[in-house]
Amino acid sequence: MGIKMEKIRNALKSIRVKLFLLVSLIIILLIIFLILINNLVFGQFYLYSKTKDLKEVYAVINDYYNDPSDIDIDSELEKLAVNNNFDILIKDDENINVFTSNKDFLSTFGEMNAMTNAINAGELIEENDEFIIRKLKDNKTGISYIMLSAKLDNGYLLYIRIPVSSIEESVKISNNFLYLIAGFTILISAVIVSFVSKKFTEPILELNTIAKNMANLDFSHKYRITDADDEINNLGKSINLMSDKLESTIKQLRRTNIELERDIEEKSKIDEMRKSFISDVSHELKTPIALIQGYSEGLLENVNTDDESRKFYAEVILDETNKMDKLVKQLLELMKLEYGKREFSDTEFNIVELEKEVVRKSKVMLEEKGVEVKIDSPDEINVIADDFYIEQVITNYLTNAIKHVEEVDGEKSIRIENNVNIEKNKVRVKVFNTGINIKEEDLARIWNRFYKVDESRNRADGGTGIGLSFVKAIMTNYKNDYGVINKENGVEFYFDLDLKI
After folding, report:
1. Which pTM does this prediction carry?
2. Which domains does the chain have, with CATH numbers?
């Protein structure tokens, strides 16, 4: 029951249903008005019209008897009775029948007294010195009449009557006909209203759908403009214009919001970079500052008076100062790489030639370690990258390999391999050194800034502890793979580069 009521309430909200109910109500009110007019006015109008006809016929008959020459009065009277559906009765002053158009009319009235009583019993409609018009009812037949009784100029008595039961029947039939018309009109109007309302409601529903989509920030739907120059079409144009302007405004707001978010993110990155830089610098500069302070105080207090000792103190201070300068510059560069502030100048170059150049620059370190580097690669592999930063990656890997290379099972070596993968359009550069494997828990940590696996990576080797962090930052910018693998007799570091297409 509740579901049905809900459906009825929803249906009553429809414009079609409202329009149909409104039209039906108008039709019903119009029919009721016509019925009232039919009952109240039509009968009165009919009486007025017939009364007028009676008076006109009375005047004509009176003229006939006033000037009877050259006419057949009886024939003319017969015509008047037939044409007007009147019953006409004329008696002389001795109550002798002169003319009657209907024998029943004659038999209705007996003696003069009976006729006079019958006429006087009727409902008076109009009376003057010439005639009396009353509404009568025949008790035998039950038929109502309008009857004019008058005395002609020649002394004859004139009686004219017309039945009025037919008009009452006509009013009833007319009312029934109006009921029938009302039913048919409501049925036809339902079809017409359904068609017309559909014609009007379809664009309204379309506009409603577009408005809902606009509320959900969907501006893809537009109103289909027609050639009609009406209010709905103009509304559709306005909706489309508003949709375009809203879409443009929201797109602009989104772009502005993205730029704002980017600025906020940029500011956040800069703030994070600043904090990280301050933290790293303050942590890493403690030792060199302490050394510089200690040796400076020694010089001031003349702890060693000989020139050679003072020179040693000065060299330590200078060396630590250079290390501090190098560390700060490297940290700044690393920060720029990590936070996307460094733009790469990508060019085409031969990675094998670059590897050979790095090996050549590391000749002194290799000779100190007593090891040679073997390059296992074709002579030419062209890649696309920034050769300056790729040289730093190779240098970091090679320097790290030289520091940790050890003899294992009678072998002490460093190898550089280049494996080309045509399908992926990549080349994988590998740097291997024989030596002790890195602990599993340290494999992921070695890429962090200043992380040291063991005591061999200390200040004595001249490193800053951020070399592998450089590799991570550079490869992350290029979105290329990098990593480290423990081999059976050593450690292998690798990174990928894009080949020249």
Report:
1. 0.44
2. 14-169 (3.30.450), 343-499 (3.30.565.10)
